[in-house]
Amino acid sequence: MRAILFLLLTLFSAASFSAELLPVETKTIEIYRKALPSTVNVSNIKLAKNFYYGDVEVPQGAGSGFVWDTNGHIVTNFHVVQGGNSFVVTFHNDSKQYKAKLVGTAQEKDIAVLKLEEKPAKLQPIDVGGSKELMVGQYSFAIGSPFGLDYTLTTGVISALGRQIDGIGGVKINDMIQTDAAINMGNSGGPLLDSSARLIGMNTVIFSTSGSSAGLGFAVPVDTIKNFVPQIIQHGKVIRPGLGIAIVPDSMKKRLIQSNKGLIISHVDAKGSAAQAGLKGMTQDQFGRVYLGDVILNVDGKEVNNLDDIYQVLETKKIGDTVEVKYRREGKTLSAKVTLKPL
Prior knowledge:
The protein is an alpha+beta fold. 20% of the residues lie in helices and 41% in strands. The protein contains 7 helices and 22 strands. The strands form 5 sheets. Strands 1-2-3-6-5-4 form a 6-stranded antiparallel β-barrel. A hairpin with a 2-residue loop joins β20 and β21 (332-339). The radius of gyration is 25 Å and the shape is elongated.
């Protein structure tokens, strides 16, 4: 009789403990379980020279990522795969290491796409949401492997929207999502989710004086990912509109024109739209003397003084759009209509 009573009390206690979970806790557990199969670890491996053994594989870093489709495409940050020669992807509750190859990147958006060379028996793409309708204050959930602690869940809220953050590609990333869900080293490339376990962003960068989470994490919005990833999968790169020029680096510009204003054209693609509009790059004569190229002052009325300025202007344009370029040549200010071509 005592044994039966003890068993009943044990079952009652277990049921009571389960019933004590708050609805928000139950929901959080559901989100984690739903997104976990779609979240991966990404290891970056570099070939290094060894005096005795020749080329050896050396782990260079690790981050997180997520499954994009059933074809085996994995999305992560560019800085997670940067400098790597090969990549290894691992899944939750799967001890096997899956080799992956780099399909392409959008460095200026800190996006990279890998493709598995061999797929697990079941591949579950992440549920993709949208970022246009996000609101400050709604819950956010991050999954990743901070400091190598696999498949860690952190929770918070969306703290702000539309942030402009310096990216690894030398230009600013627009419309970043700010969250206070803890993001640390190893979270990079992992998913930021809403309360329906849908992807709303990719965890990318933190602001911190210590190198650890200070409640200021930033994610590339999913609408940007949806725009860039299909292009990378199809073309191996992002097809964007451009002028068909190369510009002199900022570090050299001031030495050439004693000013921070404008962009010096160093080279013009002979088949590009800028060449067809008559713009000229730097030239050199037979005696080695270098002549300054045209200096672009503004594009469609917007001043351009560095790479980020002109990138932000062209990012709002489409292939086939015509822009007005004002430039300086031999002391005169001129203008030209340039039709943007794919780069």
